Every structure is written in C-alpha cells, then in structure tokens.
Amino acid sequence: MNSAVDIDVEAVQEANVTRKVGRRLMWFLVALYFCAIMDRGNISFAALSMNRDIGLSSQMFGFGVGIMFAAYALFEVPSNLLLARIGARATLTRIAILWGLATMLMACATGPLSFYALRALLGVAEAGFLPGVMLYLSYWFPRKYRARYNATFNLAIPISYIASALISGAILMMDGVAGLAGWKWLFILEGLPPIALGIFGFFYLTDRPSEAGWLTIDEREVLEQALERDSRDGIAIKSSGLLRTLRNPVVLALGLCNTALYCGLTSPPYWLPQIVHGFRLVPTQIGILTSIPPLVGLIGMLLLSRWSDRRGSRFVHASVTFAIAGAGFLVTALSTSLAGIIIGFSIANIGIYATQAIFWTIPQSFLHRNIAPGAMGLIGMMGSIGGALMPITIGRLKDLTHSFSSGFVLVVGVLFIASIMIASVPIRWKSARSSTCSAR
User: Distance between alpha carbon 133 and the CA centroid of its chain, in Å?
Assistant: First the structure.
C-alpha cells in the first residue's frame, strides 16, 4: 500500500518538474525553430518575383532549395558531437546567430550561382540545429513525455508556415521601398530575429539539469533519477567508436526513414505558394490559402503525439503517420482543383508533422547516451539528404512535364516505403541487441 502511494507521489513530482522544465525551455526552443523554418522556407514566397529577377527556372529553384540541405547534411554529425562536448547553450546560439546573418545575405543574390552559394552558406550555418535540439530534449525530459514535448517543439513548423504565409505576402508589398525589391526586404527583415534570440539565448539556456539554478535541489534530483531510470530500462544498443555506431543497421534504418520524412517535409512549403500562384491570385490571397494546410497539420500533430504518449507504441504510430502523409500527397497529385490541392496538402501535413514529433522519440529514447550524439547527427544528416534531393527532383520533373503531379507521386512512394520500414525497425533492433549481447 505504502509502495503504491510512494510511486504515485514520485509520478506527481516528476510530472510537476517536467512541466516546470517545459515552461522554462520550450518557448525559447520553439521561437528558435520558428525562425529557422521561416528563414529556410521564405524563398518559396521570394520566388514569386525573385526567380524572374535573377533568372531561375523551376529546376534551378529546386536545386537552390536542395543545396541548402546538402550543405546542412555535411556538418550535422560534427555539430552534434560538438554540442555533446561544449553544450547546447554555446552550440544552438552560435547556430542561430550565423543563420540569421546568412539569411540577410540572401538579399545579395544576383543570379543562379550567387543564389546557390548563399543557400549553401545558410545550410552550413544552420547545420546540426534539429538533431541538436532533439539530443538536448533527451537531456531534460523523461521518455514518457517526449512525444508531446517534441510536438510542442514542432509547433514551430506549422506556426512558422502560417505566419510566413501571412507576413511574407505583406513584406513583398514593400517592393521598391528604399530602392529594394520586395523579396530582398523579405530576407533582410526575417534574418534579424534569430540573431537577437541567439544573443539572448547565450545567457538564458542551461546545458544540463545538474546546472539548473532555477530548479531546487529536490527537483533536480527527481528529474535526474527519472532520466537515469530511463537509461537503465531502455532497450538501447551500446556501441564503441563513432564509425561502428554509424554502421549500425538500426541507426542506418532510422536514417533512411528520416530521409523519407524530409522528402515529405520539404515538399509542401516550397511548392505550394507557386502552385496557388498558378490560379492567378494576389500575394495576400496566396498567403491566406497556404496557411490552411499547416494549421490543419498543427492540430493533427498535437492529437496524434498525445495519442502516442498514452499508448507508447512509437514504431506503430510512426508507421501510421507516414502512411497518412503518403495518402495526403496522393490526393494532391490526383487533384486538379485548388480545393483538392489544399485538402491533400492538409492531410499530408497532419502525417508529416505528427511523424516528425513521434519519430524522434525513437532515437531519443532507445539509443544509449554514449552513442546518441553521433547517431542522432547521422540520422539528421540522412534526413537532410532527402531534403536536398527531393526539391531538385520535383523541380526537374516540373520543367519536363509542366506539372507537379509526377513529383508528388514519387513522394507518395517514398513515404509508403518508410511506413513499412519503420514498422520493421523493432525486429532489426532485437536482432542487433542480441548480437551485442552475444558479443559480450
């Protein structure tokens, strides 16, 4: 009887401390990611006039989108290893300041080559941000709360797209102010907030619970005990050496799933404004309509992530959300009306955003702390490769077929394959774990 009461008390204490940590950290991390998504995706609105001004075809534009993710991928693993060594405070704030500066420099693009170079610079500056935050959250939140706090962090994606759709359309109307094109103002104004946040965050963030002066001694003890219990109770595979970790079949399978996820993540925001523009609407109307799918995706993500936290079947839930995303892109590919396209992208965003929240609970929870930085960096890097290749492919198919349908059909296939693959990861995990145990 007393044991049950003690367990209930511990659970309440753990929940209270977790909420306190969430209130302290999450608003700042969401604000950072909000700026990252906006600065990463604002070229979709800039393209409405920028492509003409600097001579970009759809394929060239897609290459510019992709090259950012390619540069991002090259520095994912080193950035995450650096975060594990010097801490999130120094790493994440450095990233924010540099990508803000790189965004502002995008206003200097004068042709395809300078456009590619500046987009690559943005990718280098932002490299390691997402896997770094996912690693950072694993330092602070017990396993059973991670999907909802991942979802809270990922609120930045739909909110940013909604805000970007509304704000970017208005900024484009500044065309000619001080002799600058509207798309140049877009990059200049939207590059300032992450610089300010980065400077503030250097003094605000705390690297580990043990260093949190804003928690009491008892609260730090409760949190550290919960995190330690998770590390003991998990099904993590231990590995020695970075190269051996990066060759682990489970880590590679998760990386391939993240590649597919990025193929979906990079498709709606970069192409939807141009698709809607084809229906001869003005920028403010484009902004309103393109804000609908991320808003629907936001609601769906919150519901599905809480469902996953309650049930705990991360692999099954990730498989389901990958399939939902694929179904949404299929509706989009088959639609010829504006309403059908908006509905299709709305369904796709539900699946993509929910997958992003649920998927990252898997490496957060089941990778041993000794290999997590390098492994999560690799998983993030492989995702960025998908973000690099898919926009280029869709842009090329658009130039060849004069339609986005074939490109979105390709995304459908990739997402359905990922749905099957993520469901099979537990089998690989048990096999790899058995091999590890046998090796001992």
Answer: 10
Q: Tokens representing 304?
A: 């599905």
Q: How many CB atoms lie within 10 A of CB 203?
A: 8
Give the DSSP per-residue string, 81-121. Answer: HHHHHH-HHHHHHHHHHHHHHHHHHGGG--SHHHHHHHHHH
Rg (alpha carbons) of the chain, rounded to whole number: 22
Confidence of residue 270 (pLDDT cuts 50, 70, 90): confident
Which of 2-11, 95-104, 234-243, 342-351 has the weakest average pLDDT? 234-243
Indicate the SS3 state at residue 237: strand
- pTM (two decimals): 0.77
Number of domains in the chain: 1
Instruction: Residue 261: give its domain's CATH number.
Output: 1.20.1250.20
Average pLDDT on 36-48 reads 84
Find tokens 């394929």 and name the residue: 59
Interatomic CA distance for residues 241 and 245, integer angstroms: 6
Structure confidence at residue 232 (pLDDT): 62
Question: Crossing angle, helix 267-277 and helix 58-74, to 10 degrees?
Answer: 160
Please give, one letter per residue, the 3-state secondary structure of 170-235. HHHCCCCHHHCCHHHHHHHHHCHHHHHHHHHHHHHCCCCHHHCCCCCHHHHHHHHHHHHHHHHHCC
CA atoms within 13 A on the CB side of 245: 23
User: Residue with structure tokens 């540099």?
Assistant: 98
Structure-block tokens of residue 162: 């909604």
Question: Which residue range forms the structural domain that includes residue 311?
Answer: 2-439
Q: Which amino acid is at 23?
A: R
Read off the DSSP letter of residue 139: T
Once rounded to an integer, what is the mean pLDDT over residues 62-82?
A: 85
Answer whether 308's CB lies under 8 Å from 353's CB.
Answer: no
Q: What does the pLDDT average to over 5-26? A: 83
